[in-house]
Design goal:
Strand order of the largest sheet: 1-2-8-11-10-9-7
Helix content: 10-25%
Radius of gyration: 28 Å
Low-confidence stretches: 268-277
Order of helices and strands: EEEEEEHEEHEEEHHEHEH
Distance between the termini: 57 Å
Strand content: 25-35%
Length: about 280
């Protein structure tokens, strides 16, 4: 995979050439917008309303709107001049325990791989961090932004996570004002038992996007002129009696993943029509 940033990871006086590549990406089915009359795909050209014409990309420049309709223009050279050192070097600022970091701060994830015969220094730092149990805090400039990042050591190598700054975290909403003293001991015992019954080890491979799977099935059925079979899902209802709901939950089998839609075979569909007729 192509790297999105190349530079140096700085640890004291040790500099390690590294390249960052995305560690994950969202997989989703996307639809195009078509003209309902001729079913031609709608395009979004670069258009200037003042000149009343399509604009080439070579004519585009960057501007900052400081007042309504008033812009300050900037060249690429000017923007490069103000880039901080973190545009080329990630200097480790400190080491922290990962469990002390609230996951709320995590943003995007990247793999950091060694470059230019830097494997020895890379694995030295990696091994030291694995043994210490600490993660590194650093800064790196990407996409016109200086990011605070956390670098985690894993047996496969370094994983880097960009993080939100404190001022970007929205205040928590009010979670309710229920007094904890109102919770009965029996209710708490049943709730703890229910949690215990559903305990499991985290295995991300168990989970899948049912909506995307259903969309793919729908696309395949549509492409072959077939129909799909819908599965009626039970409707959730508000809790009226908390104790009764907890007791019923304990007697209920563990939840299973919803059944995806499936394509109805053509033969089965024809047989169904004959029986109906």
């Amino acid at each position: 995979m192509a790297s999105i940033w190349k530079g140096y990871l700085s640890f004291g006086l040790v500099t390690i050439p590294v390249a960052l590549s995305p560690a994950a990406r969202i997989e989703r089915i996307s639809f195009n917008q078509l003209h309902s009359v001729c079913h031609t795909r709608i395009k979004m050209p670069l258009f200037c309303p003042t000149c009343n014409r399509i604009v080439e990309r070579s004519e585009i420049e960057k501007g900052y709107e400081y007042e309504k309709g008033q812009y300050l223009l900037f060249t690429e050279a000017e923007l490069e001049e103000v880039e901080p050192d973190t545009a080329r070097t990630m200097e480790i600022l400190e080491f922290v325990k990962v469990e002390e970091i609230d996951p709320l701060y995590f943003d995007a994830s990247y793999y950091a791989a060694p470059q230019n015969q830097a494997e020895k220094a890379y694995h030295l730092l990696l091994t030291a961090m694995l043994e210490s149990g600490y993660a590194a805090i650093a800064k790196v400039t990407m996409y016109n932004r200086e990011n605070i990042v956390i670098i985690r050591a894993r047996k496969e190598g370094f994983t880097l996570h960009t993080m939100f700054y404190q001022n970007e975290i929205r205040p928590a909403v009010q979670y309710g004002s229920t007094d904890k003293n109102e919770i009965k001991e029996q209710e708490m015992n049943l709730a703890m038992q229910l949690i215990h019954n559903l305990m499991a080890h985290f295995k991300p491979e168990k989970y899948r996007d049912l909506y995307q799977q259903n969309l793919q099935t729908l696309i395949e059925a549509k492409a072959h002129g077939q129909k799909i079979e819908l599965v009626n899902q039970p409707q959730a209802t508000p809790v009226v009696d908390l104790m009764d709901a907890l007791k019923k939950s304990l007697s209920k089998p563990a939840p299973v993943e919803q059944t995806p839609i499936r394509i109805v075979p053509k033969r089965a569909e024809q047989t169904k029509k004959r029986k109906t007729g």
